[in-house]
């Protein structure tokens, strides 16, 4: 699936982002507001070319107004979202009342060091802060060099701020050995995750562990609720992937593949969404190359990969909203069914199968009738002797 090598200078470019758009059915209200952009749309700012400057300006301004309104309405649907709202809109034959709905839909960010998980949290928040408070401070602490410890405690961020519908968990970067990551990933996915939870790796020395415990005392007094993870977002750095491909060093890609295929990150066949970051430092061709190679390496469709750079533009905002829509849709498909619904459905299925088996087994029915006749005859005979 991947094309030819698109190596080159990693200096920043002016190429705008090109979000991946999922081809899956959208919730009815959402489908009207999320336009699907082709890669060629990202090169033109969405404006038509016309010989008359005044007409061109009018057409361009009208399209921008339509795009702004569509994005604003799509964001409003995210704001109003509550767990269970989209269950009946994604092709499910069941109602929201048949599921055990969480208090809040929880998305887990997972990725190697430097992937841009904390930066992604800030970028997602920024999309909604534009309408609420453009001067609101960044929420997640971003690491800018290798000396930083990074995110050592699980951090819960509600999206948008003060929302009761969605929360995202920023976690500590995975170690370079995926086998050492599986234990904590298994714990998060099976037992849940809570705000302020300390994350330690086997490679941490004694001094580092003591430092983390000292830093984590502030969280020991907070009543943090454990959240069940409903879906996973796998975050990767586009620059690191491109360098790994150009240098023909398969270690980094193998590590990504092994981590992504961890069975605890998937819900059955439903694998995590992939977000490629730092695309604002790559050309459009390089970003397309990275996405194609990731799709081939991870064996997933391109619609499951979202290009979310650090640039502040309409296409990136749309990619963020589309990614959230995709994650919410798949999270709702993973909500557990209520026990009484399962018992009712299994009871009906079992009874139907038994009836079908009995009706189709004439020989069995004849044997049962003969057996009952023999029993009745023996009872009569025994009554006479008694």
Report on this structure.
- With 386 residues, the chain is of the alpha/beta class.
- It has 2 domains: 28-333, Rossmann fold (3-Layer(aba) Sandwich); 339-385.
- The protein is built from 11 helices and 8 strands.
- The protein has helices at residues 28-31, 53-80, 117-132, 178-191, 206-215, 238-246, 250-260, 284-298, 314-333, 339-360, 362-385, and strands at 105-110, 155-158, 166-170, 193-194, 226-227, 231-237, 273-277, 305-307.
- The strands form 2 sheets. Strands 2-3-1-6-7-8 form a 6-stranded mixed beta sheet, with helices on both faces. Strands 4-5 form a two-stranded antiparallel sheet.
- The longest helix is centred in the N-terminal third of the chain and has 28 residues, at 53-80.
- The radius of gyration is 27 Å and the shape is elongated.
- The N and C termini lie far apart (86 Å).
CATH top level of the largest domain is Alpha Beta
Instruction: Provide the structure class.
Output: alpha/beta
Structurally, the number of domains stands at 2
**Total E-strand runs:** 8
- The percent of residues in helical segments reads 40-55%
Task: Sketch the major β-sheet.
Answer: 6 strands, mixed
First-to-last CA distance? 86 Å
CATH arch. level architecture of the largest domain: 3-Layer(aba) Sandwich
SSE series: HHEHEEHEHEEHHEHEHHH
| Average pLDDT metric | 77
| Cα radius of gyration in angstroms | 27 Å
Order of strands across the main sheet: 2-3-1-6-7-8
**Tally of helical segments:** 11
Strand fraction: 5-15%
Tertiary shape? elongated
CATH-level-4 superfamily name of the largest domain: P-loop containing nucleotide triphosphate hydrolases
Uncertain stretches of 5 or more adjacent residues:
1-5, 12-19, 35-46
The CATH topology name of the largest domain reads Rossmann fold
């Amino acid at each position: 699936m991947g094309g030819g090598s698109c190596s080159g200078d990693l200096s920043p470019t002016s190429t705008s982002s090109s979000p991946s758009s999922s081809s899956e059915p959208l919730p009815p209200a959402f489908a009207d507001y999320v336009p699907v952009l082709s890669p060629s749309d990202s090169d033109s700012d969405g404006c038509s070319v016309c010989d008359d400057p005044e007409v061109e300006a009018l057409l361009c301004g009208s399209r921008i107004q339509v795009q702004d309104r569509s994005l604003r309405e799509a964001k409003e649907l995210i704001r109003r979202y509550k767990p269970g709202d989209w269950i009946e809109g994604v092709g499910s034959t069941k109602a929201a009342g048949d599921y055990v709905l969480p208090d809040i839909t929880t998305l887990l960010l997972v990725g190697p060091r430097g992937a841009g998980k904390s930066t992604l949290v800030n970028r997602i928040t920024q999309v909604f802060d534009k309408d609420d408070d453009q001067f609101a401070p960044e929420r997640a602490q971003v690491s800018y060099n290798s000396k930083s410890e990074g995110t050592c405690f699980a951090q819960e961020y509600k999206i948008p701020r003060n929302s009761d519908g969605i929360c995202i968990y920023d976690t500590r970067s995975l170690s370079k050995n995926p086998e050492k990551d599986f234990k904590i990933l298994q714990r998060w996915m099976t037992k849940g995750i809570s705000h302020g939870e300390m994350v330690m790796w086997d490679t941490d020395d004694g001094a580092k562990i003591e430092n983390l415990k000292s830093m984590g005392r502030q969280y020991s007094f907070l009543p943090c609720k454990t959240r069940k993870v409903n879906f996973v977002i796998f975050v990767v750095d586009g620059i690191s992937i491109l360098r790994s491909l150009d240098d023909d060093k398969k270690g980094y890609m193998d590590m990504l593949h092994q981590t992504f295929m961890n069975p605890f990150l998937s819900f059955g066949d439903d694998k995590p969404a992939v977000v490629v970051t730092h695309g604002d430092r790559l050309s459009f061709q390089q970003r397309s190359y990275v996405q194609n190679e990731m799709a081939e390496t991870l064996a997933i469709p391109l619609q499951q990969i979202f290009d979310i750079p650090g640039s502040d533009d309409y296409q990136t905002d749309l990619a963020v909203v589309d990614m959230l829509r995709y994650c919410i849709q798949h999270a709702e498909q993973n909500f557990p069914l209520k026990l009484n619904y399962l018992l009712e459905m299994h009871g009906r299925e079992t009874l139907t199968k038994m009836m079908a088996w009995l009706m189709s087994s004439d020989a069995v029915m004849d044997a049962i009738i003969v057996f009952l006749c023999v029993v009745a005859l023996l009872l009569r005979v025994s009554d006479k002797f008694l």
